[in-house]
């Protein structure tokens, strides 16, 4: 058995390597994905004051800290039996949307677009964001602008762009000023226009990758995501839903407090990261997708006209649930 090791894996948010196992005929016999960083957050948060939790858990990631801040703050709300003010809830939802904008802009323009635009067989030395800027400066500029918009909204609402201290147990540290509200409203049209152009570009780029879409990480698998009572996509509130590979709902209406009834964790020999799975199906059969593809597979619809139209088009082209990891 021969091994090919890719170490490190680049253009990801974290540290990892990949091992490809080849049989005697030189064909792929298996692959292993290794998360090589030890985190330890579950241990070093033990015994800390509850009000420190949002700030500590935010350090899980520098790209999506708002999600960790909100999850921790919501847990503290529950521990204290606090119902936060409606305005604070809206502010939390808005700052989370801003993170999704900046995080997805980074993922698409900085990590994916060099492959999609420059070609996966192009010179690795220039197949990066700098090469993208040189070859397609206008597209690169729009990507930078879109991410900048998301980051600025986070800073305005949560005090800092990364690891914002404005998200606290019990709500938000301070309200949104009229000036901040007006600034966000003034910049929204341009951000929306860039996002619309990006979707159109992505749909056109997919035409060049039919084979990759069919075979790249395309495997039947469960999906999980948050939905509201109408089955609409949710990012901040809602309950957890699991949809199986055939499209049927495997479990619905799962409150946060019930997570360990439905979700187990398997320890992996090859990775420091555990593998969550749907308990009733066991491991590995109960592995499930999360993130953008998992969320839209789990939901019935997005809940807004433009997003619902795009979702309907995606499902018409790739099915529901969509299976190809290329679509991430």
Features:
328 residues; single chain; Cytochrome-c3 Hydrogenase, chain B; 45% helix; alpha+beta; four-stranded mixed beta sheet; 11 helices; 3 domains
Describe it for me?
Helix content is 45%, strand content 16%. It has helices at residues 41-44, 53-57, 65-79, 86-118, 129-135, 137-158, 178-206, 210-215, 259-262, 291-298, 305-318; strands at 2-6, 16-22, 28-35, 167-168, 171-172, 222-227, 239-243, 249-254, 263-266, 275-278, 288-289. Strands 8-7-6-11 form a four-stranded mixed β-sheet. It has a three-stranded antiparallel β-sheet with strand order 1-2-3, with no helix packed on it. A two-stranded antiparallel sheet has the order 4-5. Helix 4 (86-118) runs antiparallel to helix 6, helix 5 packs across helix 6 and helix 6 runs antiparallel to helix 7 (178-206). It folds into three domains: 2-35, no CATH class; 41-208, Cytochrome-c3 Hydrogenase, chain B; 218-327, no CATH class. The radius of gyration is 21 Å and the shape is globular. With 328 residues, the chain is of the alpha+beta class. The protein contains eleven helices and eleven strands.
Would you spell out the secondary-structure blueprint of this structure?
Blueprint: E1 2-6, E2 16-22, E3 28-35, H1 41-44, H2 53-57, H3 65-79, H4 86-118, H5 129-135, H6 137-158, E4 167-168, E5 171-172, H7 178-206, H8 210-215, E6 222-227, E7 239-243, E8 249-254, H9 259-262, E9 263-266, E10 275-278, E11 288-289, H10 291-298, H11 305-318
Parallel strand pairs: 6-11
Antiparallel strand pairs: 1-2, 2-3, 4-5, 6-7, 7-8, 9-10
